[in-house]
Amino acid sequence: MRILICEDSVLLREGLVRLLQHSGHEVVSALPDAESLREAVAHTDPELCILDVRLPPSFTDEGIRAALDLRRARPALPLLVLSQYVEEQYASELIGTTGGTRSGAIGYLLKDRVADIADFVDAVERIHAGATVLDPEVVSQLLARRRQDDRLQRLSDRERTVLAALAEGRSNQAIATLLHVSEATVEKHITSIFQKLELDVDESGNRRVLAALVHLEHTRPNPTQTGTQR
């Protein structure tokens, strides 16, 4: 896989280059900021981009803005955004770009996940294959924020667990292994979740759940809330 990295930390950037190369992937470019990102993408034609949320010069939202800009310019390009902390608003903005048949997959992970090399590389490869992967902490906070929503109240504890696992990008088989149940049981839970969240069941089940999370986030009771404190 051809990968482009945009990360200001030299240590993390070089670490990502080495672990991805060691895993058999090609890093076509490793940038310290997003200034020349568009040109680098056009020149190297990567199959996946990894970006830090906060990049120079202001270290606020340059990375997420660059990711959204890339999504508009190249909607089929898979993106993985790394963040030091859970930033729900940014995660929601990214998830909101997954609609449509030409939209590539996205991932939003905390930088701590990079330390688990096997899981991180697996997440990268799943995103490249079309999965949308959210960090468990992001999923947990999104669900916790919407605890009072009537639609989520309809879910059983087991269905909430399945919903969170789906939003983390896990396959039905992986969820079945996690919960020590059959895949058929997982499929029944997923069908029930979609019904209770008033969603149609289709082949893009993972994205449907992510879309549901975004919808719930955008219809929160207090419209003045915009995300977690940073």
From TrEMBL:
Family annotation (PROSITE patterns): HTH_LUXR_1 (PS00622), HTH_LUXR_2 (PS50043), RESPONSE_REGULATORY (PS50110)
Q: Which stretches make up the Response regulatory domain?
A: 2-126
Is Flavoprotein given among the entry's keywords? no
Indicate whether Transmembrane helix appears among the record's keywords: no
Question: From which organism does this entry originate?
Answer: Leucobacter tardus
Q: Which UniProt keywords apply?
A: DNA-binding, Phosphoprotein, Transcription, Transcription regulation
Which regions form coiled coils?
none
Q: Which residues form the HTH luxR-type domain?
A: 148-218
What taxonomic lineage is listed for the species of origin? Bacteria, Bacillati, Actinomycetota, Actinomycetes, Micrococcales
Name of protein: Response regulator transcription factor
